[in-house]
Amino acid sequence: MTFLNSVPARVRVVEVGPRDGLQNESSSVTTTTKISFINALSSAGFDTIEATSFVSPRAVPQLADASDVMQSIERRPGVRFPVLVPNEHGYERAREAGCESIALFTAASETFSQKNVRASIDETFARFAPVVSRARQDGVWIRGYVSTATDCPYSGTVDPEATVRVAERLFNLGCHEVALADTIGEATPVRLAALLDVARDRLPFDQLALHLHDTGGLATANVMIGLDYGITIFDAAAGGLGGCPFAPGAPGNLATGRLLGLLHGLGIETGIDEHAVCTAVAALVCACPDLGTEHGHAR
Ligand code: COA
Ligand code: ZN
């Protein structure tokens, strides 16, 4: 039986729950709980866990404890802990806290860029230039994000050409990996395929990730499209936590357990222990019963 053109033997799952998940929570999660959550995820087998953000604490108060978190988590050999960095100030804070991997983020939609980081897309690249030159000197690993890769909460459907152009700029800048993000979870399989058609000859697919939210319930269908196009890196958040405070209607990331169920069900290896992910989520929900997870609020 064949129903996909290609199924890779192995896929990398990038865990983004501690950052994309917890940045959007109104209930306060203590620093100790965040550290325990990240440590529990590290033992589940991920090689990349996005841990927190060195953004303005006024913009994202939920992650104002980024330095404490990064100074206290266990660093496992072979596990990267990228942190979001919007500008040189963020880079300096991240390095002081011992970070060796960063994630730069910009958008395909001008309106979203303004709302998210108070800058045009060109201005975000001007902010990245000094960060990237320092990161390369320091041997820091760099991920790039193109937010609103298919849909913008303010301006609607996004032209694939705009998304691919921004992704090309991130690769040209020196990003080791770039994630195309469906920030509000409204991509459909047809529109994602149209984006990947435009991207196919212009972006290195072995360094391209898909970052999907599950608002419309189509995230796993979109993963199938990604697999069919040869994408082998997918982001997910344990427990389906998350969303973006600057993107109304972005409630939940694709849940890691759901993604692992799909991938393992297709016979694809990930190296990640599904049970250990459940245990990490259970401990988090136990410590913070008001968190919004894929199963709704715990009480
Ligand atoms: N870390 C901590 N503080 C920072 C900072 C950083 N990386 N960058 C700027 N600041 C502080 C400045 O020191 C300044 O503080 P002050 O008012 O006490 O002097 C204040 O923030 C304003 O600085 P400015 O450079 O004018 O930034 P801005 O107000 O235009 O905001 C961003 C730009 C990018 C810093 C801000 O919009 C931001 O952090 N956004 C985060 C968006 C996000 O995380 N979205 C979710 C992920 S997609
Ligand atoms: Zn996201």
Give the mean pLDDT: 93
Which CATH-level-2 architecture? Answer: Alpha-Beta Barrel
Rg value: 17 Å
- Oligomer type: single chain
Percent of residues in β-strands: 15-25%
Number of domains: 1
Q: How would you classify the helix and strand content by structural class? A: alpha/beta
Instruction: Please provide the ordered H/E string of secondary-structure elements.
Output: EHHEHEHEHHEEEHEHEHEHHEE
Word description of this protein:
The structure is a single chain. The chain is of the alpha/beta class and 299 residues long. It has a single domain (12-287), classed as TIM Barrel (Alpha-Beta Barrel). Helix content is 39%, strand content 15%. It contains 11 helices and 12 strands. Strands 1-10-9-8-5-4-3-2 form an 8-stranded parallel β-sheet. A two-stranded antiparallel sheet has the order 6-7. A two-stranded antiparallel ribbon has the order 11-12. The longest helix is centred in the middle third of the chain and has 18 residues, at 121-138. The chain is globular. It starts with 11 loop residues before the first strand and ends with a strand. The mean pLDDT is 93. The structure holds coenzyme A and zinc ion. Zinc ion (ZN) binds next to loops.
Task: Give a concise summary.
The chain has eleven helices and twelve strands. The protein has 299 residues and is of the alpha/beta class.
Features:
299 residues; 39% helix; alpha/beta; binds zinc ion; two-stranded antiparallel ribbon; 15% strand; TIM Barrel; 11 helices; binds coenzyme A
